Amino acid sequence: MGAERDHLTSVWNIAAVIPVENNKNGGNGSNGSSNGSFSGELLPEENFLGICSRELLARGCELLKRTRKGDLHWKVVSVYINRMNQVMLKMKSRHVAGTITKKKKNVVLEVIKDMPAWPGRHLLEGGENRRYFGLKTVMRGVVEFECKSQREYDIWTQGASRLLSIAAEKNNRNRI
What is the pTM of this model? Predict the structure, then answer.
């Protein structure tokens, strides 16, 4: 219940700071453009849930990461778009009771969905509900993560895919 309450609180806090566009154009219902197309800062397909998902990905949460050697480590993982319109993966690991933090940043190229289950993880409690995905990066290759539920898996895979498409759209617009 505590995690759900924290999540709802953060969602409401996000909702409180999202600007709502009032009709500033004299009540004619247009958005100020002659052809009636969308001219706001946000893309038209971005809705409240999409914004909340991006906020969650940027803040990050703890995911279990599998190293190339097969070791498992808890990481605070976040994904965001940087100033150069690149999707970045940031992983923080805590050492010495949280006093020292190591941060590793990588450029994300692709989201790999439906990765095979890690050996032996199905034996744990709730193991049949766990889902696995990977983020293909420039420097580290595929970085594998475990999600505790289908919902968490969907948030991460769909959210990271959406960030990649937003970054690609921005890069294409800047080239023209």
Answer: 0.66
113: amino acid identity, one letter: K
- Pick from 101, 98, 100: which is nearest to 90 by CA? 101
Please spell the DSSP secondary structure of 145-173, one letter per residue.
EEESSHHHHHHHHHHHHHHHHHHHHHHHH
Q: What is the CATH number of the domain that holds 127?
A: 2.30.29.30
Is 31 inside a domain boundary?
no
Cβ contact 31:25 at 8 Å: yes
pLDDT digit string, tens, across residues 104-125:
899 999 999 978 888 887 777 7
Structure tokens at 76: 């605070």
Element (H, E) at 58: helix 48-59
Residue 69: domain span: 48-175
